[in-house]
Design a protein that fits this description.
The chain is built from 8 helices and 6 strands, in the order H-E-E-H-H-E-H-E-H-H-E-E-H-H. It has 195 residues and is of the alpha/beta class. The longest helix is centred in the last third of the chain and has 20 residues, at 174-193.
Length: 195
């Protein structure tokens, strides 16, 4: 089955999912979007208010900043794939519960297997805390692990993982904005180096 069809099948399942209680308060599930042949996959934590309203990832203020950062390194949104660890908005934008992460991440794992990206960029601590241990690495504070490149075997293929601060953090704290700028420059350099 072609990648696009396989990804669309996952999206249909996510939109109909009722495996945890988050479906009760969501307006829309947010499966993810982008190019199923992307070299770079971005993984965030969970949908926020505007993502829940529109059913798309990173469309609020943090999404505008992500778009700006992508543009700076020569990417458009349509060239990458953007997803979240949890596909439905937790009430009041609270952190996802461990049980919600455990229930929802099989969808993310399937998306990663379909895309087989060369790079996975984790945005924020929840994404890093899920992906890095799955690849055999210890995780820690995002302020300590951001800006590094982890070479790994993940779900049966080789990938480079780059943890970054979540764009929402950069909206509230200028020092995180500078770090995010540097981390996107690192991504650009790594992509050029490994072409």
């Amino acid at each position: 089955m072609p990648k696009l069809d396989t990804m669309e099948a996952v999206e249909v399942e996510v939109k109909a999912c009722r495996k945890c209680e988050l479906w009760r308060s969501r307006k829309n599930a947010v499966p993810g979007e982008g190019n199923p042949d992307a070299a770079v996959m971005f993984i965030g934590e969970a949908p926020g208010y505007w993502e829940d309203v529109k059913g798309r990832p990173f469309v609020g203020a943090a999404g505008k900043l992500l778009d700006e950062m992508l543009s700076r390194v020569g990417f458009s949104r349509g060239e990458v794939y953007i997803a979240n660890v949890v596909k439905c908005r937790p009430p009041e934008n609270r952190d996802p519960l461990p049980s919600e992460i455990k229930t929802c991440t099989p969808y993310l794992d399937r998306q990663i297997r379909i895309i087989e990206p060369r790079f996975i960029v984790t945005l924020g601590r929840h994404a890093a805390s899920y992906i890095l241990p799955k690849a055999g690495f210890e995780t820690g504070s995002i302020t300590k692990i951001h800006g590094r490149v982890y070479e790994a075997n993940l779900l049966g293929f080789k990938v480079f993982i780059i943890p970054m601060h979540h764009p929402a953090a950069a909206l509230y704290n200028v020092k995180y904005r500078d770090k995010l700028d540097k981390d996107f420059e690192l991504l650009k350099l790594e992509l050029e180096k490994r072409r």
